[in-house]
């Protein structure tokens, strides 16, 4: 039993501490451990009891900087960590969907509450994990799985629970946002910025999950489940990465008063919920366009409360560690109070089955960027292809260039369907004057 001071009345009281097993001591795990250790007294003042790291599990624990606490068990066996009799909560920070799922399921089966930052696992089978936790009578905390230091899941779950979300837009991958803003600010090619991001630790050695949009897709699947109450399969979300974005795209975008970001969108359409992760043009006057570097942001539009906006660090050991520790504190309170009435981490007692709506149903104005070997009649030919599908040209933009063998220019078109644009681009790609296939990006004019 540990002594803790209650800040409300200054009375010293004795309450049993809540013990945590931290499984995975990578960036997030070490950040979480640092906060639990350095901020222990403040956490105890808020809780009225101690929240303590009792077991630390890492594949190579000897290489970690661990606190000098003789009461902490250090192990490389996650089964030993999960089964430890003194542990009340297991914090899974291994990542992935293999061993991580075994850890979570073993903890729940053993009557231990779980906190996880694992977006891939939750996007794939979060609803099933929640159902298991209900049956086992334990708690599940998932705040750190989306947008790191932004408490967006708590906002959707409780903060604006009384509203009806109509649409949600987010910048949810700090690596992509860093790369895009570096291209924008310094006119540096994508490959060079990616290499620098890898050197600085913003991007992994294999950056595919980030730059091809899959990381953001997992996060959108979780957000959409909370916002709309539907069980989302990540593979049902249309996903497109940022590999084709070049400095010239930002030059043209700026001419029109826009910028480019990897936008996660979820919006109700006449047929149902429309989801996508893709680069899009945003008007520079919008608040999302001002999100730069490795920051994340989420813009929620409600039927009754209207617009709310959330901004902060999207990743990093300490911002994400704050989210993990905050979840641990909430779960610890629930364990101590013994309350059986818990708010679902997915904001709904049960999630409905999502019926995928093809992205071809989406309607928007579009930005079409071409690289061509210049010759007479190119614009007329492209305009004819658009006209054949009822697509109206809005503007033609061409920055002066001396390289007629690789000449970039842009056509913007008025609002039309994604289906019509895809059909037009498919035919355009067969033209012999093109250096590469056209790049088509939606222009988000309604934000």
Describe this structure in words.
The protein is of the alpha/beta class. It folds into 3 domains: 2-149 and 317-353, Rossmann fold, CATH 3.40.50.720; 152-313, Dihydrodipicolinate Reductase, domain 2, CATH 3.30.360.10; 362-444, ACT domain (Alpha-Beta Plaits, 2-Layer Sandwich). The protein is 35% helix and 26% strand. It is built from 14 helices and 20 strands. It has helices spanning 27-38, 40-47, 78-83, 99-109, 119-136, 152-159, 174-186, 190-200, 208-211, 214-228, 247-255, 317-337, 378-387, 418-428, and strands at residues 2-5, 12-15, 18-23, 51-57, 73-75, 89-92, 113-116, 140-141, 165-171, 230-231, 238-239, 258-268, 273-283, 295-302, 306-313, 352-353, 363-372, 393-397, 407-417, 439-444. Strands 9, 11, 12, 13, 14, 15, 17, 18, 19 and 20 form a 10-stranded mixed beta sheet that branches. Strand 14 and strand 15 (306-313) form a beta hairpin. Helix 5 packs parallel to helix 10. The longest helix is centred in the last third of the chain and has 21 residues, at 317-337. The termini are far apart. Mean pLDDT is 90; it is low at 1-14.
Q: Which fold does the CATH topology of the largest domain refer to?
A: Rossmann fold
Instruction: Return the average pLDDT rounded to an integer.
Output: 90
* Largest pleated sheet: 10 strands, mixed
β-sheet strand percentage: 25-35%
Show the helix and strand layout.
Layout: E1 2-5, E2 12-15, E3 18-23, H1 27-38, H2 40-47, E4 51-57, E5 73-75, H3 78-83, E6 89-92, H4 99-109, E7 113-116, H5 119-136, E8 140-141, H6 152-159, E9 165-171, H7 174-186, H8 190-200, H9 208-211, H10 214-228, E10 230-231, E11 238-239, H11 247-255, E12 258-268, E13 273-283, E14 295-302, E15 306-313, H12 317-337, E16 352-353, E17 363-372, H13 378-387, E18 393-397, E19 407-417, H14 418-428, E20 439-444
Parallel strand pairs: 3-4, 3-6, 4-5, 6-7, 7-8, 10-16, 11-13, 13-20
Antiparallel strand pairs: 1-2, 9-12, 9-14, 12-13, 14-15, 17-19, 17-20, 18-19
